[in-house]
Amino acid sequence: MTIEVIAVGGYEEIGKNMTAVKVNDDVVIFDMGIHLDRLHIHEDTDISRMHSLDLIERGVIPDDTLMREVDGKVRAIVCTHGHLDHIGAIAKLAHRYEAPIIATPYTLALIEKTIKSERKFKVNNPLQALNPGEKQQISPNLTLEFVRTTHSIPQTITAALHTPEGVVVYANDFKFDNHQMVSPPPDYRRFRELGKKGVKAAILDTTNIKEVQQSKTHSEKIARDLIKDVLKGPLDEKKGLIVTTFASHIERIQAITKIAERSRRKIMILGRSMERYCSLAQDMGILNLPRNVSLYGNSKAINKALARANDNRSKYMLIVTGHQGEPDALLPRIANNKTNFEIKPGDNVIFSASTIPNPINLANRNLLDRRLKERGARIYNNIHVSGHAGPEDMRDFIRMLQPEQLIPAHGDISHLSAFVELAEEEGYKLGNDVHVLRNGQAQVFN
Amino acid sequence: MTIEVIAVGGYEEIGKNMTAVKVNDDVVIFDMGIHLDRLHIHEDTDISRMHSLDLIERGVIPDDTLMREVDGKVRAIVCTHGHLDHIGAIAKLAHRYEAPIIATPYTLALIEKTIKSERKFKVNNPLQALNPGEKQQISPNLTLEFVRTTHSIPQTITAALHTPEGVVVYANDFKFDNHQMVSPPPDYRRFRELGKKGVKAAILDTTNIKEVQQSKTHSEKIARDLIKDVLKGPLDEKKGLIVTTFASHIERIQAITKIAERSRRKIMILGRSMERYCSLAQDMGILNLPRNVSLYGNSKAINKALARANDNRSKYMLIVTGHQGEPDALLPRIANNKTNFEIKPGDNVIFSASTIPNPINLANRNLLDRRLKERGARIYNNIHVSGHAGPEDMRDFIRMLQPEQLIPAHGDISHLSAFVELAEEEGYKLGNDVHVLRNGQAQVFN
Amino acid sequence: MTIEVIAVGGYEEIGKNMTAVKVNDDVVIFDMGIHLDRLHIHEDTDISRMHSLDLIERGVIPDDTLMREVDGKVRAIVCTHGHLDHIGAIAKLAHRYEAPIIATPYTLALIEKTIKSERKFKVNNPLQALNPGEKQQISPNLTLEFVRTTHSIPQTITAALHTPEGVVVYANDFKFDNHQMVSPPPDYRRFRELGKKGVKAAILDTTNIKEVQQSKTHSEKIARDLIKDVLKGPLDEKKGLIVTTFASHIERIQAITKIAERSRRKIMILGRSMERYCSLAQDMGILNLPRNVSLYGNSKAINKALARANDNRSKYMLIVTGHQGEPDALLPRIANNKTNFEIKPGDNVIFSASTIPNPINLANRNLLDRRLKERGARIYNNIHVSGHAGPEDMRDFIRMLQPEQLIPAHGDISHLSAFVELAEEEGYKLGNDVHVLRNGQAQVFN
Amino acid sequence: MTIEVIAVGGYEEIGKNMTAVKVNDDVVIFDMGIHLDRLHIHEDTDISRMHSLDLIERGVIPDDTLMREVDGKVRAIVCTHGHLDHIGAIAKLAHRYEAPIIATPYTLALIEKTIKSERKFKVNNPLQALNPGEKQQISPNLTLEFVRTTHSIPQTITAALHTPEGVVVYANDFKFDNHQMVSPPPDYRRFRELGKKGVKAAILDTTNIKEVQQSKTHSEKIARDLIKDVLKGPLDEKKGLIVTTFASHIERIQAITKIAERSRRKIMILGRSMERYCSLAQDMGILNLPRNVSLYGNSKAINKALARANDNRSKYMLIVTGHQGEPDALLPRIANNKTNFEIKPGDNVIFSASTIPNPINLANRNLLDRRLKERGARIYNNIHVSGHAGPEDMRDFIRMLQPEQLIPAHGDISHLSAFVELAEEEGYKLGNDVHVLRNGQAQVFN
């Protein structure tokens, strides 16, 4: 009986994650994500109407055409969490496989939304919810288990695929955070148990492997304390107050709203994607917004709300999209004077996010900052912690799982190579039991 | 008798240079440039139709409103060379002063063009040509001298203003290049003579002060040798061949065309600004293009030429604009498949330019490179030398001129401060005889 | 009546702080520090036996010879806190002035120690303790007030010198930390009162002005949370455990020992300077060490302790000097196998410090890390927060104090210039009311 | 018949190169170098007296113990050029193999010297000279060919091993330089012929793969032009003049001495290793020193020469060791005032070398520069071009050789991985026909 790990996407970039694991004749697909950066290259890309083959050619979604030559039956499409680089290609690719899509309830609800907004393809795969801590048999030989972990979106799981040859662990993405408000800590006990039971192979998120100055990723508790300290002044001043963060970062939005709850300001959460992620999380009982919070998702409502806030700026705190300076997001549009809210001298703008350092983002952020400053805003930058494990977290994970074989994922060759060096410190050896794959390559374990 | 140096623009940025020197009641203005970076902040800026006050407010041109309070008569507007950060605001500001514009013939011809394309203002100042090595009396007390120097555009001069109190030297921009094809070396002998005669104050270009790894700026001879080595293969291959460089860099274009002269390829110089700078330089006998070169400036002609080159790509070498990735320039449009020329696998693209490292350019260049590579092009990057003096050149200049007072210009506070450190190594002291000015500030010497 | 601020040291470097403030005929000196980096240039420098003039020539201590020409009477030498770059030159320079040394009790006790270990000079100046919150008249016209602030050593104060012309504030060094264990938060209320009363001039620590990614410096609370998270695993493992931090960072040592108090490990604090700072702080009731902590300062005791720890490594946690990789400090000596404690595979080494990024430190840390790793140690890096205010803290401070005049200190020209840009955002203008001084220069305010 | 490439050393670092190629039962070893950086970790390493096993354990020389398990007969030890990272372990390892050492005459002479200064081992392997362009049969099945190439030491060759399965090319180190004075250009024609004949595998030097700003490495012609421009002033001034460069860089020393030949200064080449490399090159007719040059190798002679130069500094130009700031080399000792030559204000020091950017060198260079500047020297930095091929040179080489299989060498995993990306642009694929090896790993080709 052989196990084969097929690197479909996310092995040459941070984005468009997709990995297939083949155990004899059964195949499980983990994640189907998109790579948003690639969209910049082609100006005319309206994803929702495009064919998957065009998107594949442009590098926007994983090239799963190689799956045709994989001789086996796909038993499940498993998504570990609701970020677009993990679920964003579902609507383009899933219909080709006769298999259910399995994810945690919140992730599943987000997948449903992407399927509904798709214009080109009809996705009819059954959607099956599985909770962290639960198992489900997906073929006579295979059982899928969802182990609780943490990341920057709720209900992220690490998948454990139980096979006759041992467990295959797919942990992409994850961080080890013991102090989140919305999500309980990772289930370290279970990881250790799996390690004892015997992990055949582990596929790990290496996004942050190069963060040597922050060898263990800081907890959201740190973010909360930073926000608390930074918000103190601005909440009391008689100035405008805008906070921007990731729309999907429910934990962070929970923290920000909680901290601002007792101030006199009303909180407006504004933006289409803000509304989508938050209202869903609220409906599902994940996000618990204080009473002084309102959500605005469609442009008319947003405009009205912004006009109100503009006239009475010391009475509101706005939580908006646009921290990367994306030209069509709300904060850049505000800074560019294209909304009803005008930045005035002394207004405070808090970036509860880091800039993902590709040249496009850096240029957009630079423009955004210059425009905000020109209008007199005060900027608080990088009030944030990462959602990806640092190198010492990865080392801890390796020690817990003691996998026979290691496959770094979610990075380009420089990330995967840096992981190899870490793994070798732990006794592995490149090509023997830690493997660098390129998109489209497979690794077979006997 | 007092001398006053008024920092109007270019003391808080690399761009929009303008300095006024007042000697008793006579004022001489040096340069009136624009700051192209500032255009990015406001999306709707059509310069040619805008009023100077709006452009001043947006930081695009120097704020010369302070000149109203300068109690003196402007005797001349002197431009040292034809780059837009030195002449680009002439059409917006010069009409406010009853004074001739004095420059070398090539610079003057370029100034004339900017005046003609202006839509808002009418500039009627007399245009007076002065050659390097010549002097002209501009008031009973003042004589202006143009001393030969080198830069990245022909007929750049260092201005020496002879006053009863000593010489005021304005050297912005300059490099010390002894091996250009088009321009003779700087007149070091004259600089030393001025030094002996007595230089009261020197205003110096500090753009490259931080280039510690290249303490003396490399000569164009180096660029020629690099181009020769790099072009060798591509000229012979049966592939497309595109070179991009600064349209105003006549010296470089001379070198490239000379090197490619004996190949079998026909050379097309393409682009509106390419045509403007080159045809003017050709008409004035500065640029001596080989017979196999053609110039195309209007879009119809460019399109036809590109179509020809596309069908027979091994027969042509294209020299085009767009090295900074500017979206509307020719190379980015080619890479984006918006012209008749399609990049094919194996085509060679040579950047005879460096990327000016602001975030917008870096993003544009990144996009351009990715698009070129996606189509299979091979890129040769940075086949280039700078046009600005390095720190050790500045030191040499200080030793030649031995100025009483030093005023660094053409940089933000970090450039000017770095120059202060160099000057202090040469015996000067901040505040005593080397001065950091902000835009709008003046320094008086008694 | 004029006020003159004389920049004696610390205006061209981070180090050797010394500023004199002259109010009519009265002079107050703030800080007399050394510049440890300069020692690297000369290999044979045994400070304790060297004459001040030699040390001045070598750039190790401030050049106070210019004070001879200051026409006034020195009324006090005021030290803001106990770091060597603020008190380290007292033993070399103070005896030249007939004036008391005024500082908080802990600072004063540290000053006494440096005076005692001096071999060349005899310092007999009276030592006068002043507590935070207290005032003392030091001449008919001048009253000195110590305002509570925070930094990375206890009992740091911001000095407010009340003069007939307004208050002169000297805040060098400081951070705004509201959550320290050992020290209460800064006295913001008093800062605002001073602002209302009228601050003539403020001299501010600019060390961290360039930290744009951390615009408000993180609190020690953050450091505590990081340490707690990082120490959890290592405390429980059966491996060696070493923590290194600044010997003078009593707050941090308090936090580390408190966190480890309930573990089964005994805590050894080891090293001569560790012992000096800690035992003093303990004696003065500032540091409250748990019962399972022992202090070892002389080499024999250290050796014995290390031998014990070596034999039973899972029973101890060592807190040692050497985080910058200084060859003679304890951790580098351990890593180099020059002590009784041998690093074994799996031992944990926690750096609760950042590397001060000069080339010597970077080389020393690199060597240290390679040696530790070669022996199998696991390294946790940068479990730390800074002790200096970030740019947005400085902005807050300016808004509280509303000083007429600003003088950035404790940095080279690049720090001071960056501060100018911040100050100009707040309405100041270089040369008018914010000033860049060089060592040896003075600024007069009328 | 199988070919096996065994990565012994230089696949996890820039240094200690050693690769074995096994063709059936015949083995050829390429290079036996040392890794000088590793010496810093252990302070007490006197190489000449140490056993190879100790040096292996310390990572200073390649771990060739794995060769015991290689089932074959070593037919030759081939060294490509005379740098220590290619020949420095010969004296420690070669005696274990019953095989001749084959190299070009200059390389061989340098190998002889290292053998003679060895204290621990006796190396009796026959030394066989082979000239560039020549072939030699080394076993019934194998013929070794030396193909002319260029680098930063004379007589560097690319080895071509002709096997029944095709050619194995070992090009480590190399650059493509068409304008050296001492060495003719690489034999591109022969490379293309080998490509046509069929290259089974190519092992390539990747040192400079990350130099994206200098995609083709600049020629020594560029270095000559830079030196000419920089030396002009200093040669004429009445000041001291010191040039420092690599002792083994005969080409550079030829260029410098040639440029300075017609000045009035006498040229002294000083330093033990300077003398070793230069006198050998001179004796063999490779280096052609002008008449005004003298060589000084032993310390007494050096001291006397320095004393002469000190008394009459405007009459001499010194060429010395120490460009990396190595504490025991001549220039750092001069800067530290430990010789008879004292740096005086205005003396010129020209670094015809770049700093190899590891933390130790950066610290040493920083110290050296500060000491030189403190004494008033003027420094010209980085008057240099590299000796290693840039990425576009590598691409050219791949296109000439068209190897079936590619193995990047001479770099850590980040270099090798970056090469993989280049190779993939040329149609290769990781694991299929381009391979990343770790020290101790082998790749078999059938």
From TrEMBL, chains A, B, C, D:
<keyword id="KW-0269">Exonuclease</keyword>
<keyword id="KW-0378">Hydrolase</keyword>
<keyword id="KW-0540">Nuclease</keyword>
<feature type="binding site">
    <location>
        <position position="173"/>
    </location>
    <ligand>
        <name>Zn(2+) 1</name>
    </ligand>
</feature>
<comment type="subunit">
    <text>Homodimer.</text>
</comment>
<dbReference type="InterPro" id="IPR001279">
    <property type="entry name" value="Metallo-B-lactamas"/>
</dbReference>
<keyword id="KW-0694">RNA-binding</keyword>
<protein>
    <recommendedName>
        <fullName>Ribonuclease J</fullName>
        <ecNumber>3.1.-.-</ecNumber>
    </recommendedName>
</protein>
<dbReference type="GO" id="GO:0006401">
    <property type="term" value="P:RNA catabolic process"/>
</dbReference>
<comment type="function">
    <text>An RNase that has 5'-3' exonuclease activity. May be involved in RNA degradation.</text>
</comment>
<comment type="similarity">
    <text>Belongs to the metallo-beta-lactamase superfamily. RNA-metabolizing metallo-beta-lactamase-like family. Archaeal RNase J subfamily.</text>
</comment>
<keyword id="KW-0963">Cytoplasm</keyword>
<feature type="binding site">
    <location>
        <begin position="384"/>
        <end position="388"/>
    </location>
    <ligand>
        <name>substrate</name>
    </ligand>
</feature>
<dbReference type="InterPro" id="IPR030879">
    <property type="entry name" value="RNase_J_arc"/>
</dbReference>
<dbReference type="InterPro" id="IPR042173">
    <property type="entry name" value="RNase_J_2"/>
</dbReference>
<dbReference type="InterPro" id="IPR004613">
    <property type="entry name" value="RNase_J"/>
</dbReference>
<keyword id="KW-0862">Zinc</keyword>
<dbReference type="InterPro" id="IPR036866">
    <property type="entry name" value="RibonucZ/Hydroxyglut_hydro"/>
</dbReference>
<dbReference type="GO" id="GO:0008270">
    <property type="term" value="F:zinc ion binding"/>
</dbReference>
<feature type="binding site">
    <location>
        <position position="86"/>
    </location>
    <ligand>
        <name>Zn(2+) 2</name>
    </ligand>
</feature>
<dbReference type="Pfam" id="PF22505">
    <property type="entry name" value="RNase_J_b_CASP"/>
</dbReference>
<feature type="binding site">
    <location>
        <position position="83"/>
    </location>
    <ligand>
        <name>Zn(2+) 1</name>
    </ligand>
</feature>
<feature type="domain" description="Metallo-beta-lactamase">
    <location>
        <begin position="15"/>
        <end position="216"/>
    </location>
</feature>
<keyword id="KW-0479">Metal-binding</keyword>
<feature type="binding site">
    <location>
        <position position="85"/>
    </location>
    <ligand>
        <name>Zn(2+) 2</name>
    </ligand>
</feature>
<dbReference type="GO" id="GO:0005737">
    <property type="term" value="C:cytoplasm"/>
</dbReference>
<feature type="binding site">
    <location>
        <position position="410"/>
    </location>
    <ligand>
        <name>Zn(2+) 2</name>
    </ligand>
</feature>
<dbReference type="Pfam" id="PF00753">
    <property type="entry name" value="Lactamase_B"/>
</dbReference>
<feature type="binding site">
    <location>
        <position position="173"/>
    </location>
    <ligand>
        <name>Zn(2+) 2</name>
    </ligand>
</feature>
<feature type="binding site">
    <location>
        <position position="151"/>
    </location>
    <ligand>
        <name>Zn(2+) 1</name>
    </ligand>
</feature>
<dbReference type="InterPro" id="IPR011108">
    <property type="entry name" value="RMMBL"/>
</dbReference>
<feature type="binding site">
    <location>
        <position position="81"/>
    </location>
    <ligand>
        <name>Zn(2+) 1</name>
    </ligand>
</feature>
<dbReference type="InterPro" id="IPR055132">
    <property type="entry name" value="RNase_J_b_CASP"/>
</dbReference>
<dbReference type="GO" id="GO:0003723">
    <property type="term" value="F:RNA binding"/>
</dbReference>
<dbReference type="Pfam" id="PF07521">
    <property type="entry name" value="RMMBL"/>
</dbReference>
<dbReference type="GO" id="GO:0004534">
    <property type="term" value="F:5'-3' RNA exonuclease activity"/>
</dbReference>
